[in-house]
Structure formats: structure tokens, C-alpha cells
ABC transporter permease
Amino acid sequence: MKRKAWFFLFLAFVLIISSACTNSDTTEDTKDNEGKVPVSGTGEEGGTIKIGVLASLTGALESYGKQTQRGFDLGIEFATDGTMEVAGKKIEIVYEDTETKPEVAVQKATKLLEDDEVDFLVGSSSSGDTLAVLPLAEEYETIMVVEPAVADSITGAEFNPYIFRTSRNSSQDAVAGAAAIAKSGVKIATFAPDYSFGLDGVAAFKKAAEKLGAEIVLEEYADPAATDFTSNLQKVIQAKPDYLFVVWAGANSPWNQIADLKIQEKGIKISTGAPDIPALSTMEPLVGMEGFSVYYHTLPDNNVNDWLVEKHKEKFNGEVPDLFTPGGMSAAISIIEALKKSEGNADGNELIGIMEGMSFDTPKGTMTFREDDHQALQTLYSIKLEKQEGIDYPVPVLIRELSPEETEPPIQN
């Protein structure tokens, strides 16, 4: 009996020593060069990649924010083949509503960076919100993928190396808009909201149009929150342009008042970028207008867009993706592609070199992050608004694709 007791005591002692050695070896094996155990965002297997998405989920740009959200979720699904993982890491998405208020955007971004410890920022629906948040990306050395804000200054005067933009910028819109109407001898008035989106949009359009020989006879700006544009539009009528080029975003659009004042009957043609589907529903008076489009679901012809249209209909009761849905998807795809190349390393400084010059497939075709300013070069579309049977809004019909080379904006940073 004594011999058996000593044997069991000896066996227990061996098991304890073995267990201690195993635990010690495991801890040492998982430490990095500084003696710290790797956490989310490193290149090690396992863990979680957190992505914080800022969007206008309420307020005037609510529809834009929700389109981005849908597109981003679908983009992660597409780029990960439905696994919601990349390089052995799970993807976690945290959405925050900026309410289209720059001060709220800063608060929400700070919360994402400090409390949620996100590895990436994405957003936002408003250029004003986005510009307010840009310095935080640099301060926290975190990659921010800008979508869908378009102000030139984001990748221009306010640029920092942690910013990459999948949305087009005002200059890309301007080149597309000018290509539709500007030529020698043409007189053009512009109308836009009085904030960075409108100001940058008009400045870029003016430069592109004048380069083609057109004359800008009036620049008219309205309060972004206004609903009555009568006084602004009366000034346009008095200027007697050949065209009125409108730069607009948001639910408080001027289309009905343009129709009420019979501007086109006064010999002034209207041109603009084709907006999202709810806004297209208010543009019945503009059937026949030639302009440009960022996206309409029938315009691109590629496999990624086919997947997006089919999956969107499947998930959202037959609805087609709208203007900013493919942008959300493109932002998600760019992040996953970068993480594949980095083998899961989400360190901002490492990713800058990987993402500069990186090309990736999107619903709008291949995009490329330009090395100089991290603006994604991309396809836009020259279109005409037409009525189609069974559709209760004017439909953007393709005239021709405007290639990434054609719409390449100037470097402004």
C-alpha cells in the first residue's frame, strides 16, 4: 500500500511540473519581440479586426448613411466569401450615427478609437463630418477609408497619409459634369448648397468647364437647410445662362421649384449628377436632361455589380442597390484586400505602403488608390434621363462610360 501511495504522489508531481512547463512555453511562444501578448489588429492568427463606420443614420442624409451601411455589410460578405473573417481573424463592425453634425462625428470617432479600439475608421456621409474627423485618424495612426464624402479638400488641403478614399471627389464629378455640357461659347450658371460639398463642387466644375471654353456667368449658393429656393433661382433666371448646373445632396432638393418656376421653358437647360432613387422620383420635369451618374444599378457591366444587385434584392425585399450602396461595398472590399496583403496586420503605418497604388475590383469596375493622394481613380457615367415603362421615376440611361483616366482629378495635396 505504501509503495502505491508513493507512486501516485510521484505521478501527481510529474503532472504538475509538466503542466507548468506547458503554460510557460505557451505564454512565451505568443509574446512578440517586446514581450507583449499580441492583441486584435496584429499579424498573428486569431483575434478580431474591428472596423468603426461613421454614417448619417438619422437626419437629412439618412438615406445616404443607410445605403453605405448596407453596401459595407455586403462588401465584407463578398470579400470574405461569406466567412466574415480575413487572415484567420474575425471581422467586427461597429456603426455610429454622426447625425450629420461635425461635433457629434468627432465624439463618435473618439469613442470608436478609444473605447472600441477599432483598427479602421470608415465614413462619413457628410464632407463636414469627415473633415472634422480626419485629424483623429492621423493622431491615432489609424487608416480611415472615406466614403461617401466628396469634398476635394479631404484628399487635398486637409489630407494626411492615413486617409484613403473610395468615394469619388468633387473634381471627378466636375470633369464628368463638364464633359456633358461645356464647350466654347456656352454660358453656365451654377447652384449649390453653401458648405464644403457645394463650394468644392462648383469650384471644380468651374475649372473643368472653363477649360473646355464655357463661361460661368453666376455662382449661386443656398443655405444647406433651406427648403425655399425662390430667390436663388430668380437670380439664375436674371443671369440668362444656357445651362444651370446644379450640385446638390440631401432630401431638400430644388427640383420641384425649378419646375414651378418653369426655368427650362425660359430657355435654360438643367444639368446635374443623377441622384439616388428617392431624389430621381422628384425629377420628372428633367426627363431628357443630359448629365452624369456616380452609379445606377444598370450602368456597370461586371461580375461584382451583378453579385451586388442579386444579393441586395435577395436581402432587402427586391430592392435594388442605390447611389451610395456600391461605395460602401467598395470601402469594405478595399479593407479586406489590404488585410489579405498584410496577412491580417492592421497597423496603420504598415498598411499605408500596402494600400498606396493598390487596385481592387468593385461594383464600378477596378479602382486604384493613387499613390500621391490616396484618391481612388474610378469609372463614372455620362447619362441621359429617360422614362421607362413600369418605372415611376426618370431612369439614368448610359451614353458612355467615363474611364478612370478621363475622370482623374488634379492632385491638390
